[in-house]
From TrEMBL:
Annotated segments matching region LID: 110-120
Taxonomy, superkingdom: Eukaryota
Residue numbers binding ATP: 15, 17-20, 111
EC number: 2.7.4.3
Subunit structure: Interacts with small ribosomal subunit protein uS11. Not a structural component of 43S pre-ribosomes, but transiently interacts with them by binding to uS11.
Main location group: cytoplasm
Region (NMPbind): 35-58
Reactions catalysed, as given in the entry: AMP + ATP = 2 ADP; ATP + H2O = ADP + phosphate + H(+)
Species per Swiss-Prot/TrEMBL record: Stereocaulon virgatum
PANTHER family in the cross-refs: ADENYLATE KINASE ISOENZYME 6, POS9-ACTIVATING FACTOR FAP7-RELATED
Name by which UniProt lists this protein: Adenylate kinase isoenzyme 6 homolog
Functional note: Broad-specificity nucleoside monophosphate (NMP) kinase that catalyzes the reversible transfer of the terminal phosphate group between nucleoside triphosphates and monophosphates. Has also ATPase activity. Involved in the late cytoplasmic maturation steps of the 40S ribosomal particles, specifically 18S rRNA maturation. While NMP activity is not required for ribosome maturation, ATPase activity is. Associates transiently with small ribosomal subunit protein uS11. ATP hydrolysis breaks the interaction with uS11.
Length: 177
């Protein structure tokens, strides 16, 4: 059955502001914030804890199996630092957030990230790893790159995504006939 609400992935390097964007979007729309981190943890979609990187070792197959009964129905804002694991057919928009590297450094430093993890994340942001992943995995018109340097960016990005959701709904209404 066609979706009546879109699915949006908010992705980017750790610390760019994915969760901040998802929370504000979920508060302003009927879409639900789906934190993949939370799903991985709550539903055990992992092969244990990586002590060095302080993160779960995600079992992508288990994760997708767990999401496939809900996500394809639509209405989710997916919060995750990867996007290429999601089937293209599930996703209507991929937002890649980008942050200036000095700002990102400060945000990650404030979280007391281990030096190695901090450096890897900064390199990843500078090398545009997530943007590349999104462009390789999805059609060009599905991927949008937005700045997340200032608090004002958060506000304007969310307004822009809300306008996109409204346009998507208009374009997709009546398609179920
Ligand atoms: N556009 C922005 N301007 C200023 N500060 C921001 C912005 N976006 C996020 N922040 C701040 O940066 C920090 C990280 O934000 P957030 O937790 O939303 O990032 P994230 O991408 O979800 O990180 P992770 O991948 O680790 O979950 C928070 O302290 C948040 O308040
Ligand atoms: Mg987050």
């Amino acid at each position: 059955m066609p979706r009546t609400q879109p699915n949006i992935v908010i992705t980017g390097t750790p610390g760019v502001g994915k969760t901040s964007h998802c929370e504000l979007l979920a508060a302003n729309t009927v879409l639900k914030h789906l934190s993949i981190n939370q799903v991985v943890k709550d539903r055990g979609c992992h092969d244990g804890w990586d002590a060095e990187f302080k993160s779960w070792i995600v079992d992508e197959e288990k994760l997708l199996d767990s999401l496939e009964t809900e996500v394809p129905n639509g209405g989710y804002i997916i919060d995750w630092h990867a996007c290429d694991l999601f089937p293209e057919s599930w996703i209507d928009l991929v937002v890649v957030l980008r942050t200036d590297s000095t700002k990102l450094y400060d945000r990650l430093k404030a979280r007391n990230y281990p030096e190695k993890k901090l450096q890897e994340n900064l390199d990843s942001e500078i090398m545009e790893v997530l943007l590349e992943e999104a462009r390789e995995g999805f059609d060009a018109d599905v991927v949008v790159e937005l700045r997340s340097d200032e608090v004002g960016d958060l506000q304007s990005n969310v307004e822009r995504i809300e306008a996109w959701i409204e346009a998507w709904k208009k374009d997709n209404s009546g398609k179920e006939d």
